[in-house]
Amino acid sequence: MNQTSSPLRAGVVGAGVFGGYHAGKYASAPGVSFQGVFDPVSDRAGAVSEAHGGKAFDSLQGLIESCDVITVASPAIFHHDAVRRALLADRAVLVEKPLAATLEEARALADLARARGLVLRVGHQERFVFNAMGLFGDLPHAQTLSARRMGVPSARNLDVSVTLDLMIHDIDLVLALAGSAPDRVDAQMDAGRAGLADHIRCRLSFPGGLVAELESSRVAEARDRVMEIGYQGGAHVRVDFIAKTFDSQGGLALNPDFADAPEARDSLGANVAAFLDAVRGSGAGGPAADGEAGWLALETALRIDEAAGARSRI
């Protein structure tokens, strides 16, 4: 789709927290006409739409017909239906993670987007922070990685495991660095409700030699999001995603001022902008995750939950 001469009409499925964020990004984006929101809870759809100058749609189909590009920010169980219907209508889609609730659904969406030549992107926005630091640049081979992503209790995303809720961000980053799926997954659930993981630890071993140890919790006492990477030759970096700082050793070619870069200050906005550029044909999407990357992140997350004996969703 090439829409360089006329505004892209954009809409959002889901009027939760992230639906509101996406609505705000579209409403303020140049060359975009924000149309509104569809959510089964009409009051919420009305509030988000009104706040950003759009309207509340009575049906998903009505939103799809009125838009060129669509963000799907509903609960994961509804992703497949909304994304599929939008793709079948030849609309480009940005869907929040995870891509879908099951591997079969995720594969079907990735294949459908490819078959129809449509842009499908997944909301793995931490990639843009990584990119701003230079961690996707020409660096030595990563040999070890440890990541800790801890969150405090909240009412968000309790229909899925912490693996699909929080850890999937670090899973996606590890997969992007490794360039392949892990050939071994070991995991342990430390806390959970009715088998649904709230605190999980795992070890991922990759064919290229990278070993990654990840830990995520959504029942922690404080937020903490740190990653450490050890490279061939002894170089090392420690990243604090909350403070947006890093410490490095070994002469790594990283950007010390990355926190001032637009894609680090507003990674969601950077992902939306890259999505719109890809739709217009004016950019390849930068480090954005496509349908294949979304599928692989979901596949790895489900393998982790299975190894830990945990359920992935209610």
Please, could you describe this protein's structure?
With 314 residues, the chain is α/β, with parallel strands linked by helices. The chain folds into two domains: 8-124 and 269-289, 3-Layer(aba) Sandwich (Rossmann fold), CATH 3.40.50; 126-260 and 296-308, Dihydrodipicolinate Reductase, domain 2 (2-Layer Sandwich), CATH 3.30.360. It contains ten helices and 14 strands. The chain has helices at 17-28, 42-51, 60-65, 79-88, 103-116, 126-133, 162-178, 262-265, 267-280, 291-308; strands spanning 8-13, 32-38, 55-57, 69-72, 92-95, 120-122, 142-150, 184-193, 196-205, 211-217, 224-231, 236-240, 245-249, 289-290. The model has no long low-confidence stretch (mean pLDDT 94).
